[in-house]
Design a protein that fits this description.
Layout: E1 2-4, H1 6-15, E2 20-25, H2 31-38, E3 44-46, H3 49-56, E4 64-68, H4 76-80, E5 84-89, H5 94-107, E6 111-115, H6 121-130, E7 140-142, H7 152-161, E8 165-169, E9 187-192, H8 200-203, E10 208-210, H9 223-236
Parallel strand pairs: 2-3, 5-6, 5-9, 6-7, 8-9, 8-10
Antiparallel strand pairs: 1-4, 2-4
Helix pairs in contact: 5-6, 5-9
Length: 239
């Protein structure tokens, strides 16, 4: 897998340097960074701007690329072993997914599960970049990529069997009062796409439906922004 940009490459350099197989440079880098790259004892190749633009698909690459080992996606068993999860249902924008991974890692969420869509290698590269490298450190499960192709409702049943408390993001407040998450209690937050939201069948499976009260006659938030707000509120017991 190819990653690019200083923030992503530096994150891998600091947290998983063994996964770096090759370095590509289209610009000069400072001496300190170049010395660190040389210590990896992997090929460092110079590439022209045309090649760099191709590898980055026209995005800002800052002249620094790395070829790393393929990402190892988490399986369902690994996801169920976590204490907390973000479950994305039909969220397809790779930028949003990457930002949610980054936010989840920063706030201490155990993992992210993607339902109802598959992600190509190119899409995973984009998720990695949007996550600023956090995808390397956070269990990340794509249900559609597994041989069993587990559907969302079956996964919900497994979460319930594993004693997860389920929260769904929606525009209707739950009739049940939110009392916060007890220490040691496992929980999962379900988020739908911005245009459709969570399917009614999914919402019906939730223990609580939670929402963000909006002001100024505005009723839309980016899903990654909503994720950060709701996770913080769950952890603080402020819903």
């Amino acid at each position: 897998m190819i990653i690019f940009g200083k923030q992503c490459v530096l994150y891998v350099l600091e947290n998983s340097s063994d996964s770096i197989k090759e370095i590509y440079l289209s610009k000069e880098v400072d001496k300190g960074l170049f010395s660190r790259l040389k210590r990896l004892k992997v090929p460092i190749l110079r590439i022209d701007n045309k090649k760099a633009q191709g590898l980055s698909k026209g995005k800002n690459h800052q002249g620094l690329f790395a070829k790393i080992s393929p990402l190892s996606l988490a399986n369902v068993e690994n996801a169920l072993s976590q204490k907390s999860l973000i479950v994305l249902c039909g969220v397809s924008d790779v930028g949003n997914i990457g930002n949610i991974v980054r936010t989840s890692y920063a706030l201490g969420v155990g993992g992210v599960v993607v339902c109802d869509i598959n992600l190509s290698l190119t899409a995973l590269e984009s998720v990695f970049r949007a996550s600023s490298g956090a995808l390397l450190s956070l269990p990340f499960c794509v249900l559609e990529s597994m041989e069993s192709r587990l559907n969302t409702l079956d996964f919900i049943n497994q979460l319930q069997g594993a004693k997860f408390r389920l929260f769904g993001s929606g525009i209707v407040e739950s009739a049940l009062a939110f009392k916060g998450v007890n220490k040691g209690e496992k929980w999962a937050l379900f988020l739908g796409s911005e245009d459709v939201g969570l399917h009614k069948k999914v919402l019906n499976k939730m223990d609580s439906i939670i929402s963000i009260k909006m002001q100024n006659n505005f009723n839309s938030l980016n899903v990654s922004v909503a994720c950060g707000i709701l996770v913080d509120r769950i952890l603080q017991g402020r819903i």
